[in-house]
Each structure stands twice: as C-alpha cells, then as structure tokens.
TrEMBL record:
Lineage of the species this protein comes from: Eukaryota, Viridiplantae, Streptophyta, Embryophyta, Tracheophyta
Function per UniProt: Probable carboxypeptidase.
Record-level GO cellular component terms: extracellular region; vacuole
Protein name stated in the entry: Carboxypeptidase
Source species, domain of life: Eukaryota
EC number: 3.4.16.-
PANTHER family, sorted: CARBOXYPEPTIDASE, SERINE PROTEASE FAMILY S10 SERINE CARBOXYPEPTIDASE
Keywords per UniProt: Carboxypeptidase, Disulfide bond, Glycoprotein, Hydrolase, Protease, Secreted, Signal
One Pfam family in the UniProt entry: Peptidase_S10
Keyword Glycosyltransferase assigned: no
Molecular function as annotated in GO: serine-type carboxypeptidase activity
GO BP of this protein: proteolysis
Intracellular or extracellular location(s): Secreted
Length: 482
C-alpha cells in the first residue's frame, strides 16, 4: 500500500475502497511470526539449512538467526514461516519465547520482529540494531500465522478459506511440535508465549491445547503467557473505546452519549461483520469518525501519523477508520520495502506463493471474523487454574483495545477464581521514571499498564517494554523503587 509514488489524493480514493475489506483484515493487529532455528556449537542437520548467513544491510552481531518453513498440513501443503533469533548472550541458559501478532492476518515477522521487539529495524536499505531487543533476555521465535500471512502459504488455496481460531490454534501446535524436531535442544527449555491484539485469541487457545496435550505426553514446558492490549472479551474490550475517546478529548459529550446509548462499538462491529449496518449505527460512526479525525492514530492517540500511510491497510482495526504509525512513524513503509527485496527473501529462505508481494496484513486470508465475539478470558482462567502464570499488559495510549477494558476483565477474573490481591495497584519503574501501573492476584495473574505506550507496546516504549518482559520471564513483581 505504501508506494511513495502515490500522491495522497490517489491514495485516499483507492484506500477508501480498500478500507472496508481491510478493516476486516485488520481487526486485530498483529498476527504472525517467523519461525527461527537454533543450535549450540554444532549444526543439527535438521536446521542447518535454515541458518541465516547474513541479512542484507545488517550490522555485525554475535547471535545466530534462522528462518524457514515448517509444514503443518501435508495434504494441503500448508507451510508456516518462522524467524528465530538466538539470545545475544549465552542462549543455552535462556528461555524460548514464541511471539504472535494479531490481525487476524498480520505478520509477526513484519510487525513483531521488524517493528517491535526484534534485533533490527529497517531504515532504507540497511538494518539498524534495536538496543532494546527482547533477544537480550530470551531466544525469540516469530511465527507468521495462519497460512496466507506474510511468507506462510498453502499450495492448495482452499487452505485460506474459512480459517478459524480453532484451525489456527491446531496449526500453531503442530508447528511447534515439528519446530522442536529441527531444534531438539529447545524441546525441554522453559517456554513462554507472548503477543498482542488478536493474539488475545491465538495465545490462550494455543496454550490451552498445550496443556491438554501435556496430559497425554509432556512435550511443552510452558511457563507463562503475556498478552499485550489483547482482545479477551469482545463487548467489554470494544465498548471501553467510547469512554477512552471521550476522556482523552477525541469526542464531544453529546457524541459520547450516542456512542454508548444509541449504538455502541461492539454492536456496530457485529453488524458490520454480518454485512448489514443499521442507519443508527452508520450515523453514530460517521459522527465519531468526523470528530476523532483520520489524522489521529487510533493505536496511539498522542502520536503523529505517517502521512504516506495514513490509510495503510494494516492500520484498519475497524471499519471506516484510518490509522497512522509509530515512533519512526513510517516504519511500516520501511518494513514492507525491505521484506520485498529479493536478496532479503533469499537470505530468509522465504518464498512468495499465491501472492505477488509480502504485505503486513494478509489480503488472501478469509478469516472467520465472528470468532472475535467468542470470549477467551475464560480460557485465560483455565490456564491460571492449571498453574500457568498470565500477564495482561496495556499500552495506555491505545484506544483500539483500551486499558480500561483489559483491567476490568482481569479484575473480574481474579474475583471469579477467588484470587487475593498480592500486589496492590501501584506504580512500577523503568530507569528513573514511572513505567506504568500494576496489580497482581495470587502471584499468578497480573495486570500492568505501560505508560506512554501504543497498541504495539515494544514499538512505542522499547525500554519500558524490556523491563516488563524481563520481570515476566523471571516471574518477579515489576520494579517498585527507583
């Protein structure tokens, strides 16, 4: 979408048409990831062909990177692409972390690895080192899922039809089991799953399958789950948007009133996904759209937008909304152009199948969008009951999945599970500044905000996100003092 040769006017014309489709595609923002491989001091024959010798334009680093494919369905020839980065220091002592973006249909490689918490950020033809990369603390595995996202593909194109949460969870489970065959030294390593947005659906469902699978045969050493600005319960998460807009000055008192009473956001999205938007909802959303304006990034209401991609499809989490970008506000344009370079694709052992180019969010995937309405907060509850620690964290500048909805859901869940407050609501620190606020229940369920962070927390607050990540991996409370 972001070829700079388009002028803004042309873009607007084209994009308005794409918006409706794209919203769908986008509902949740980050989906996938890239699977990478690992080894110690020897090559295992199973992963040596996935070793990345050097990414074009990358600075010299001491850690190994892998990328390639794992077939998850022989019949349809479904293959998921992964990018794997070993920890910077002493990888054999560090845990394995799987990162998933949302969408449904967005790339963990392009968003997670290259815009958020991976080791490099694209800048023109080169890669710049990310000083706050999460591979400082863990071996990071990014998976592009489901098929049809990024470089992941199905030779049989029916593999892209009616893809659901259940199909995605199953494919992700198969992926991990087969990935361990390539990287046997990780099989018994502590494993954490992290991600954001629609990954609030992907991750609990995958973790749940792991827990069930382990009852038959202990394969997954799952030690914790972290969910960033996640969709956990559709109505609560979406309807907290009106209050967020209003309290941050994006809409007027009168619009706030109709946005809660006449047609709230979850009703609008439900109608939209079913192909019929009532006149009352159309009217309310037109008013909301006019007041919030397309020149404010709904994923970070305080951030400037990237004008060239103000209408870029990977930013449409909702119908008729255009969103901008993050700190390098045009990072998405950089990533798209980098990942479409032939030499980059060659270095990553990636291929394009059924698509002409790599895109941030898939336009060939037909996802069961109504799955968004099925709550996953109950699955989070069953993970906690099974002894799996869960962290829900929220960038507090995100209006798409606002912190108020997530905080409410975590608090209610703690009540249902009968968990006592073990860390009362308080600030936490990163460096000499407040990093955000946190509250813990039963030392197993934690809510945290990240101050000044967008929907994509590690992108917008890299240093604070790294402090949060480290505490999560070490299952320690967030730092209390300077």
């Amino acid at each position: 979408m972001s070829s700079s040769s388009f002028n803004l006017v042309t873009r607007i014309a084209i994009c308005t048409t794409i918006l409706l489709l794209a919203q769908i595609c986008l509902f949740y923002k980050n989906v996938c990831g890239n699977q990478l491989q690992h080894h110690h001091h020897h090559f295992s024959s199973s992963n040596s062909s996935d070793l990345i010798v050097n990414l074009p334009g990358q600075p010299k680093v001491n850690f190994k990177q892998f990328a390639g494919y794992v077939t998850v369905d022989q019949k349809k020839h479904k293959s998921l692409f992964y990018y794997f980065v070993e920890a910077e220091l002493d990888p054999s002592s560090k845990p394995l972390v799987l990162w998933l973006n949302g969408g449904p249909g967005c790339s963990s490689l392009g968003v997670g690895a290259f815009s958020e918490n991976g080791p490099f950020r694209p800048k023109g033809n080169i890669l710049v080192k990310n000083e706050h990369s999460w591979n400082r603390e863990a071996n990071m595995l990014y998976l592009e899922t489901p098929v049809g996202v990024g470089y992941s593909y199905s030779v049989d194109i029916t593999g892209y039809d009616a893809v659901s949460d259940a199909v995605t969870a199953r494919d992700n489970l198969v992926f991990l089991r087969r990935w361990f065959n390539k990287f046997p030294q990780y099989k018994h390593r502590d494993l954490f799953i992290t991600g954001e947005s629609y990954a609030g659906h992907y991750i609990p469902q995958l973790a749940n399958l792991m827990v069930q699978f382990n009852k038959k045969e202990k394969v997954f050493n799952l030690k914790g789950v972290a969910l960033g600005n996640p969709v956990l319960e559709f109505a609560t998460d979406f309807n907290s948007r009106a209050e967020y807009f209003w309290s941050h000055g994006l809409i007027s008192d009168s619009t706030y009133k109709i946005f809660t009473k006449a047609c709230n956001y979850s009703r609008y999205v439900s109608e939209y996904y079913r192909g019929y938007v009532s006149p009352v909802c159309s009217k309310v959303m037109r008013q909301v759209g006019m007041e919030t304006s397309k020149f404010v990034d709904k994923y970070d209401v305080t951030l400037d937008v990237c004008i060239s991609s103000v209408l870029s499809q990977s930013k449409i989490i909702s119908p008729q909304e255009q969103n901008g970008e993050s700190i390098d506000v045009c990072i998405e344009d950089e990533t798209v152009s980098y990942l479409n370079q032939k030499d980059v694709q060659k270095a990553l052992h990636a291929r394009l199948v059924n698509v002409r180019q790599w895109t941030v969010c898939s336009n060939i995937l037909d996802y069961e969008l109504l799955d968004v309405e099925i709550p996953t907060i109950t699955i989070v509850g069953s993970l906690v009951k099974n002894g799996i620690p869960v962290l829900v964290y929220s960038g507090d500048q995100d209006s798409v999945i606002p912190l108020t909805g997530s905080r409410t859901l975590v608090h209610q869940l703690a009540g249902k599970l009968g968990l006592n407050t073990t860390t009362p609501y308080r600030v936490w620190f990163a460096g000499e500044q407040v990093g955000g606020w946190t509250e813990s229940y039963g030392n197993i369920l934690t809510f945290a905000t990240v101050r000044g962070a967008a929907h994509e927390v590690p992108y917008s607050q890299p240093a604070r996100s790294l402090v949060l990540f480290k505490s999560f991996l070490e299952s320690r409370p967030l730092p209390q003092m300077l």
